[in-house]
Design a protein that fits this description.
heterodimer, A: alpha+beta, 2 domains, five-stranded mixed beta barrel, 7 helices, B: F1FO ATP Synthase, 3 helices, elongated
Chain lengths: 343, 72
């Protein structure tokens, strides 16, 4: 017992626990607003969904990486070109395993899906995403007291229930409440469209608002995942028809196998639609739940505790991108095989 | 107490039982396979991850239902 409980271990444990407890007391954080649809942010006069901005960010990142990796290409690669070649060759090997001789045909589609989903998932973990945005008057019943940090507003951890209509005109200047800091996803805001006077206020004149982030992980928007799922399944049908001609549809309308064959065909049809739903909800559920998990963890215990969950989200983002791509590949490989007669 | 919270909790709680057992069975199979044939471990691992994603997707459906119940 004394070997395990020596003073070094004890000190380390006390330090860790103390940090965790101190985080909750010293730096409480506001819980970011969680809602299923993407929030609209005002950008350059338009109202744009914040997941769209995030998708654009992922696109630009991929383009920049591609540009940087392929300029001044050397015979013996090094640096970013080396890394890019490693990733592409690794995935191409896997594609060849599953797809055989059609790997070259399907690789661009599958690799694009993988890279886009991966970059979009991993951008969610960068500080600033989901925490920097526009501060607006509360949309629902509750809001957070705002503290003014220079020209910006920050959400404090004090949650206030609105008891009266949003008619308060006085914007309180007193930065009294505690500010959320540290590893918590702190809400910082910019003034939106001259709303200086437009916040409802607490009884002592401090403004109340909520944060609408500029960026929110693309895969938390069902539109993004559904679009990818539709593209995947549409390409599966396309390659199936390209390989088998109109005979591809005998998989769904099977008139040769008797009544049993017909029912199997019906099930296959339903299964194709179920795959679309399954694709979109798998990615959506994983990333949305991960986002909610990170928010809640940062809200409950701001210091040290969210770190393993960040690691989990890193892993989940990678795995979900991989799964989406490999599943598309598997369905593609399945679709071009002639409908065998097992019976 | 709002039924909304209760239903969300039940949705994910009961919905995670099946996939939990499923993932356990999957990994058991994978571990046994690796035990028999350690050289094939990378290939077995890849297929195991694939299978786990399928099983976990069911749990994710339950989670999405729970989230919809709570936040919509």
């Amino acid at each position: 017992m004394s070997r395990v409980l020596n003073s070094k271990v004890l000190v380390a444990v006390v330090l860790v626990l103390g940090t965790i407890v101190a985080g909750k007391l010293v730096a409480p954080a506001a819980l970011p607003g969680i809602q299923l649809p993407a929030e609209m942010v005002p950008i350059l006069g338009f109202r744009v969904p914040n997941t769209l901005l995030h998708t654009l960010l992922a696109d630009i990142t991929l383009l920049i990486l591609a540009f940087l990796a392929t300029r001044n290409m050397k015979e013996i690669p090094d640096g970013l070109q080396n890394f890019a070649e490693w990733v592409i060759e690794g995935f191409y090997g896997l594609t060849e395993d599953i797809a055989g001789d059609r790997a070259r045909q399907w690789f661009p589609l599958v690799m694009t899906i993988f890279l886009l989903v991966l970059v979009a998932n991993w951008w969610e973990l960068v500080p600033g995403v989901d925490s920097v945005g526009v501060v607006e008057p509360p949309h629902g019943e509750t809001g957070f007291v705002l503290a003014k940090v220079g020209p910006l507003y920050a959400l404090t951890a004090e949650e206030v229930k609105l008891e009266y209509k949003k008619e308060g005109e006085k914007a309180g200047e007193k930065a009294g409440a505690e500010m959320g800091e540290g590893e918590a996803k702190e809400g910082e805001g910019k003034e939106g469209e001259g709303k200086e006077e437009g916040f409802p206020t607490t009884e002592d004149g401090r403004p109340i608002g909520v944060l609408v982030p500029f960026l929110r992980a693309s895969a938390t928007d069902l539109n993004f995942t559904l679009a990818l799922a539709l593209i995947s399944m549409a390409m599966v049908q396309y390659y199936g028809i390209q390989a088998l001609g109109m005979g591809y549809f005998t998989k769904f309308i099977n008139l040769k196998g008797g009544a049993m064959g017909f029912v199997v065909g019906l099930i296959e049809t339903i299964s194709e639609f179920a795959k679309i739903i399954s694709f979109s909800f798998r990615l959506f559920g994983n990333i949305f739940a991960g986002q909610v998990l990170l928010f809640i963890m940062a809200f409950l215990l701001p210091w040290l505790v969210p770190v393993p969950f960040y690691g989990l989200e890193l892993f989940v983002g990678l795995i979900q991108a991989f799964i989406f791509a490999v599943l598309t590949l598997a369905f593609l490989a399945n679709a071009v095989v002639a409908h065998d007669d097992h019976h | 107490m709002d039924l909304q919270f209760l239903s969300a909790g039940l949705a994910i709680g009961l919905g995670a039982i099946g996939p939990g057992i499923g993932v356990g069975l999957l990994v058991m199979g994978a571990l046994q396979a690796i035990g028999r044939n350690p050289e094939a471990a990378p290939e077995i691992r890849t297929n195991m991850i694939l299978g786990i994603a399928f099983a976990e997707a069911i749990a994710i459906y339950a989670l999405v239902v729970a989230l919809v119940l709570k936040f919509v």
